[in-house]
Amino acid sequence: MSAQLTQYLLSGLTVGAIYALVALGFSMIYNASHVINFAQGEFVMIGGMATVWFIGMGLPLPLAALAAIGAATLVGLLLEKLAVEPARNAPVVTLIIITIGASILLRGIASVIWEKKIHALPAFSGEQPIVLGSATLTPQSLWVIGVAAAVVAALWWFFNRTLAGKAMLATSHNRLAAELAGIGVRRVLLVSFGLSAALGALAGILIAPITFTSWDVGVMLGLKGFAAAILGGLGSGPGAVAGGLALGMIESLGAGYVSSAYKDVIAFLIMLAVLMFRPSGLLGRRTAERV
Amino acid sequence: MDRTGGIAFGRSILAAAFCASAIAAQAAEPIKIGAFLSITGPAAFLGDPEQKTLEYYVEQLNSAGGLLGRKLELVAYDSAGDAEKARTYAKRLIEQDKVDVIVGGSTTGETMAVIPLAEQAGVPFISLAGAVVIIEPVKKWVFKTPHTDRMACEKIFVDLRARGLTKMGLISGTGGFDKSMRAECLKVAATHGVEIVADETYGAGDTDMTAQLAKIRNTPNVQAVLNAGFGQGPAIVTKNYRQLGIKLPLYQSHGVASKQYVKLAGEAAEGVRLPAAALLVADTLPDSDPQKKVVAGYKREYESRFKQDVSTFGGHAYDGLMLAVEAMRRAGSTDKARVREALESIRGYMGTAGVVNMSAQDHMGLDLSAFRMLEVRNGEWTLVK
After folding, report:
1. How many CA atoms lie within 13 A of A208 on its CB side?
2. Architecture of the domain defined by B2-148+294-368
3. Is B308 on the interface with A (CB under 8 A)?
4. Minimal Cα distance from B200: which residue of A?
5. CB distance B203–A264 less than 8 Å?
6. pLDDT in tens, chain B (385 residues)
7. For residue B357, with 0-12 CB atoms within 10 Å meaning exposed, 13-18 middle and 19 or more buried, which class applies?
8. Which of A235, B153, B256, B381 would give a disulfide with B374, using CB separation of 3.0 to 4.6 Å?
9. Between chain A and chain B, how many beta carbons pairs sit less than 8 Å apart?
């Protein structure tokens, strides 16, 4: 019985870490602009697909991964420059709709460039599973979990210890005041799109050996990552990780002990319940109304 | 849209050019083969090889002198996996293009949407889609060439029994193909003396199935596992299966009978068995195999012409076209009622899917011998003797 439980928890950890990495990208852009970027899943897709592509051109994995992150960052910057910035005075809802449009466009382009095939990436440190008691974990899962932890730490440092990070936080709190204090708020938005695209691509590369990658892999990953970000509290780095892990665990335990057919139902029900009692999510900031 | 428009347009130009010369030569109208296929969209992997196959073989037949002294003309539209579009195009094929026979319908959804039209207009319709509902109950004007998912289940159960096993765990996706196969397997398991002791599912974009597999592993008495699935899901299941170190035999469905599955799952696919059409192992079939000539021939032609791996889906289109041609040859005309009767009376016809024995009760005409049980050994499909 407990052997089974260990396996379910390890499965949940693997899936949860994947969701967490995607959720972090959502939080990033939300922090800077209060925009929910529905093209985040496509950044994840570009990361995985571009890496496969570059490897096919003969680059070694580390170089291909770097090039893919670079390519995704470029796409993120272009998206902000060409689509979001021209509409910067529009309401947030309009911006969100723009990102939905961008996600459809990116998927379409990807399906043309990379064909509608499923691609695999080799695991970074082999396929030999790690045995823990009677349960197993793939080495790639450790990569995902480790990088997710490192990214959270790096983001914490960035937002709390660097001027650029503090400027971004300030912009998210009060755009006008930040602008009056001399912060280039346009630059902030641009940087946040670039950063979260890079983050999404990193996630896409790390998870491709586990989940495979294809032109439409971003749809479901984006949705689950978004759910995780909401559950953890939008805009909070640790919250995104907590939300991702919680969602992964609930899914895996639900599939194991209740019914695999209803695991998504269970996960979303619990999510609704949490949001009912804590609208700002598990670790989200209370949005205090200032008078 | 544009592409099909282009195809149709190109075809009509060709047809026009051809007609001009034909009028001079023999004043005979071409025989029109209508097709609606998912050339683009989510089911493009079905429609694309189907369209290529139809175009290529219509060309071949024409350069060999055509049929009944007339040339063949293909009118193909792209229904993009959309049942609504399929209906519109089928209507156009019947009413505007006045085709003599329809070969098409890459997916079950598209096929089912068109069946009422074909039945009402009385046009022989050979579908290229899988589900058993297309020909069950029998519809007067509707035939199909691919194997059904029920046959895949039966083939697996027969193999399971041959290994002396009877209790099976089932894991399936939630897509249309997966669900239909799961239902068929559950339906026919008992008649083959097989008991399904576990029944788990996973979602379309799921990234890890170890929880479901751990649950199946812990089910008492489970002796083998069957994964009814399509796309990347089965490859993830296969990897997770090995990760958990499950030693029971693993069966996959014909839905992943392609080189891509072996490539994706890698070493984890070793020892996996699945039922598939002979086309997949065309080169390794013994020369004595009655299907060898047809499948090896089609494979050679397709791969040398299009420089891509042959797929069973293109094979279904080949069978559909050849059955239509055979029926018209036997009927000696393109009279729709007589072609339909001829189609229904085809027996012993060797196609890429197997021996076709049509009858008034069976509008597919394939039996279990059409499927071969394959096993992955050293990264290659090999025949299970």
Report:
1. 31
2. 3-Layer(aba) Sandwich (3.40)
3. no
4. A260
5. yes
6. 445 555 555 555 555 555 445 444 444 789 999 999 998 877 888 899 999 999 999 999 999 999 999 999 999 999 988 899 999 999 999 999 999 999 999 988 899 999 999 999 999 999 999 888 899 899 999 999 998 889 999 999 999 999 999 999 999 988 778 888 999 999 999 999 999 999 999 987 788 899 999 999 999 999 999 999 887 889 999 999 999 999 999 999 988 887 888 888 988 999 999 998 888 888 888 888 888 999 999 999 999 999 888 888 899 999 999 999 999 999 999 999 999 999 999 999 999 988 999 999 999 999 888 889 999 999 888 888 7
7. middle
8. B381
9. 98
Q: List B373's β-bridge partners, or say none.
A: B275
Q: A210–B208: do the CB atoms touch at under 8 Å?
A: yes
Q: How many CB atoms lie within 10 A of CB B303?
A: 13
Burial of B193 (0-12, 13-18, 19+ CB in 10 A): exposed
Domains and CATH numbers, chain A: 2-277 (1.10.3470)
Residue B160 burial (C-beta neighbours within 10 Å; 0-12, 13-18, 19+): buried
User: What does pTM read for this prediction?
Assistant: 0.80
**How close B331 comes to chain A (CA, Å)?**
41
C-alpha A257: how far from its chain's center?
Answer: 28
Q: Of A10, A46, A11, give the one whose Cα is nearest residue A25.
A: A46
DSSP chain A: -HHHHHHHHHHHHHHHHHHHHHHHHHHHHHHHHS---TTHHHHHHHHHHHHHHHHHTT--HHHHHHHHHHHHHHHHHHHIIIIIGGGTTS-HHHHHHHHHHHHHHHHHHHHHHSTT--B----TT-S-PEEETTEEE-HHHHHHHHHHHHHHHHHHHHHHHSHHHHHHHHHHH-HHHHHHTT--HHHHHHHHHHHHHHHHHHHHHHHHHHH-B-TTHHHHHHHHHHHHHHHH-TT-HHHHHHHHHHHHHHHHHIIIII-GGGHHHHHHHHHHHHHHH-TT-SSPPP-PPP-
Containing B51, the helix (H) or strand (E) segment is helix B44-63
Q: Which of A127, A212, A221 sits opposite B236 (nearest CB)?
A: A212
A271 bridge partner residues: none
